[in-house]
Every structure is written in structure tokens, then in C-alpha cells.
């Protein structure tokens, strides 16, 4: 897809100096400092940096709408890209599990996903992989590390979703039968598998620390998931894991910030007015200065909606930074997240009613709608 050469005029543009009316010039996929190409009047509209979604698993329903239904993952990825663009996301980190849960969250599917993403020809949206590794899969460490190296995965998050409380009491975890059947496995075999992993919990800390050290030496960004305590965050920091995804408490988030680590929260938490599971409010962390980025988590409309919701409290510049410049910085992507000369031409256009009218990724139109589309196409 060819990048557009345009000079956008008349709109309110969120640049480094705040939200101001002015021109924004695009050429060869970059923002430039002088007028170029066709002039497009966007009076009454607002132009914002494209959204950088640092963690989202909403793509799963496109790749596996039903078990065995999606044979060609490229078809699913095309659908994913369309949804991302329709929600103003220009860079997306697709958070793929490497989990004992199996099915589309198992190692076999992860390999297929990575292969498909590596060969996918994007329409403009920058889609990248994050691997979410279940730490108790001790027998998978070598295969997981090999996949990270083979596919050039740049971001790994450590998870532990084993139902330890039930397993420690010798109880059958809730929903086990449904989970097993959904992934095509015998429930009793499934139970034996997770019991075995739980029984080896004492071996996990040393193995995780060694794996984290090797990945870090390779330049892989490392995150922890659902930090619950300050002590837990300190443990991850000692392993070189500097990103705290979705901490469950303000204590854990404050510990991250105090140690120079970064905090990522879920944008749906902001939209809902709190966590669906009773954890700390993302909006409260934002107002306390304890949040560096908001992620779609499981719902791609959430970053845009959450940032606009927060704008009433903390101002549009600070709120929008949480879904653009903030996550771009955490990912080491200093070429985007800000509307300034030399940066990628990643942007969205909101019409006068606040509806998304256009998404441009690298200067390519990935989404157009309504009056904004008419102006850009005329």
C-alpha cells in the first residue's frame, strides 16, 4: 500500500506542544515540516497520534472463532488488522499465550501464529508478537526459548495462571472439565498435567531467573503479569523484568514506580470504572501518577475510549500519551507516538462528534469513514 502525500489543514492537532490548530504534513510515510501534496481541509476535526497497543489478546476470536474453524490464519490476521484500524490502532502487540491451557493458547498454536504473523503482508498496521509464557511449564523452557529466538520475539511476559489454591488442597479446580474439552483433551489427563506442574513449584523460581537472564541478554523486553505485592514486584525486578503488566494492587504499582519499573494497565478497567475482578482501579493509578501505558487487554475499542474518558480529568495531552507515546517508549519505538517531523505518519482523525473518521499507519489509510473519508478522498 502506498503512503499518502498530504497537507492536513484546519484541524486541532495534538503535537508536542499540546492541542493546537495547525497544518500537519505527510510524505513517504513520515511527518514532514513543510507543505506537500494535496491539501485536505479537516476543519472541525481533531488529529491525534495513532494508538500503540502494547498488549491485546482480542485477536484470538478472529484466529479461532470456533475450534478448528479457521484453517488459514492469514484470513484471521486480515480481520484482526481491520478491527485494529477501525479502532485507531496503528501499532499492535498481539499477546499470544504459550500455556498449558492448550488449544489456541497452547505451544503448537503459538508456533502456527508466529509463523503466520511472520509471513503476513500488512495493509499498514504494524502488528508484533508478544509471548505470554506460563512459568510452571518447566519441560517447555527449551522449546519456548528456541521459538523466541527463531521468530525474533522482542517482548515476553511471564504468567502463572495455575489454580494453585485448589490444587494445594487436593481439590478439582473449577471449570476444569470445560477447559479440557475446549482444548480437545481428556479432563483426567488435563488434571494430571496441571497437578504435576503444581507439584514442581519449588523448581520454578530458579528456572525462571535463568530464562529471564538469557532472554534479557538477547535484548528481549520482559514483563510480569498481575503483580499482587511489593515483594513480588521486587522479585521480578531482581530478575531483570522491568515491565509490570496489570498489577492487582496500588502497593505493587507503587513498588514498580519506586524502583524505576514501568506500569501497564488495562484500558477496559478505566472504561468500567474499575477492575471486573476487584483489583485496583486503573483510573486511580493514572491519577496517582502510577501508570505509564494503557492497553486494550481484551477489547480493541478500549484504548481510544479510555483515553478520551480520562481527558476530562487529566487533560487530553496527558491522557492520550498513555495510549501513544507512553507505550511506544516502553517498546523502544522512538519513531512513533508523537506527531512531529521525522516521526512515522501514524495518526487518527476524529470528526466533530468525536467519532473515528480515519486511521493512517505509516501514511497509509487503513480506515476511512463518514465525512472525514469524503474529505480525504475528494
Automatic annotation (TrEMBL):
Gene Ontology biological process terms, A to Z: organic phosphonate catabolic process
Top-level taxon in the UniProt lineage: Bacteria
Domain Amidohydrolase-related: 221-352
Gene3D superfamilies: Metal-dependent hydrolases
Gene Ontology MF term list: hydrolase activity, acting on carbon-nitrogen (but not peptide) bonds
NCBIfam families reported in the protein's UniProt record: PRK15446.2-3
UniProt protein name: Alpha-D-ribose 1-methylphosphonate 5-triphosphate diphosphatase
Amino acid at each position: 500500500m502506498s503512503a499518502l502525500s498530504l497537507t492536513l489543514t484546519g484541524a486541532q492537532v495534538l503535537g508536542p506542544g499540546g492541542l493546537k490548530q495547525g497544518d500537519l504534513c505527510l510524505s513517504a510515510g513520515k511527518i514532514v515540516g513543510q507543505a506537500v501534496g494535496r491539501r485536505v481541509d479537516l476543519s472541525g476535526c481533531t488529529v491525534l497520534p495513532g494508538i500503540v497497543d502494547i498488549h491485546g489478546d482480542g485477536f484470538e476470536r478472529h484466529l479461532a472463532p470456533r475450534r478448528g474453524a479457521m484453517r488459514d490464519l492469514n484470513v484471521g490476521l486480515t480481520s484482526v488488522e481491520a478491527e485494529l484500524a477501525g479502532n485507531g490502532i496503528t501499532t499492535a502487540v498481539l499477546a499470544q499465550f504459550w500455556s498449558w491451557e492448550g488449544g489456541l493458547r497452547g505451544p503448537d498454536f503459538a508456533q502456527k501464529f508466529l509463523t503466520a504473523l511472520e509471513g503476513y503482508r500488512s495493509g499498514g498496521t504494524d502488528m508484533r508478537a508478544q509471548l505470554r509464557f506460563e512459568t510452571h511449564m518447566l519441560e517447555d523452557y527449551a522449546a519456548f526459548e528456541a521459538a523466541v529466538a527463531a521468530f525474533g520475539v522482542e517482548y515476553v511476559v511471564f504468567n502463572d495462571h495455575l489454580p494453585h489454591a485448589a490444587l494445594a488442597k487436593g481439590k478439582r479446580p473449577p471449570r476444569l472439565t470445560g477447559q479440557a474439552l475446549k482444548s480437545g483433551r481428556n479432563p483426567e489427563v488435563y488434571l494430571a498435567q496441571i497437578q504435576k506442574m503444581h507439584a514442581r513449584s519449588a523448581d520454578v523460581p530458579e528456572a525462571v531467573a535463568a530464562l529471564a537472564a538469557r532472554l534479557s541478554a538477547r535484548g528481549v523486553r520482559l514483563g510480569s503479569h498481575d503483580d499482587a505485592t511489593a515483594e513480588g514486584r521486587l522479585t521480578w525486578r531482581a530478575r531483570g523484568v522491568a515491565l509490570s503488566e496489570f498489577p492487582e494492587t496500588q502497593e505493587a504499582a507503587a513498588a514498580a514506580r519506586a524502583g524505576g519499573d514501568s506500569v501497564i494497565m488495562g484500558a477496559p478497567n478505566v472504561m468500567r470504572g474499575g477492575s471486573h475482578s476487584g483489583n485496583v482501579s486503573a483510573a486511580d493509578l493514572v491519577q496517582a501518577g502510577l501508570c505509564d501505558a494503557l492497553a486494550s487487554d481484551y477489547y480493541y475499542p478500549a484504548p481510544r475510549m479510555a483515553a478520551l474518558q480520562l481527558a476530562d480529568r487529566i487533560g487530553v495531552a496527558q491522557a492520550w500519551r498513555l495510549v501513544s507515546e507512553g507505550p511506544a517508549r516502553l517498546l523502544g519505538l522512538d519513531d512513533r507516538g508523537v506527531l512531529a517531523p521525522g516521526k512515522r505518519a501514524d495518526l487518527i482523525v476524529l470528526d466533530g462528534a468525536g467519532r473515528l473518521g480515519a486511521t493512517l499507519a505509516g501514511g497509509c489509510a487503513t480506515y476511512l469513514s463518514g465525512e472525514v473519508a469524503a474529505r480525504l478522498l475528494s
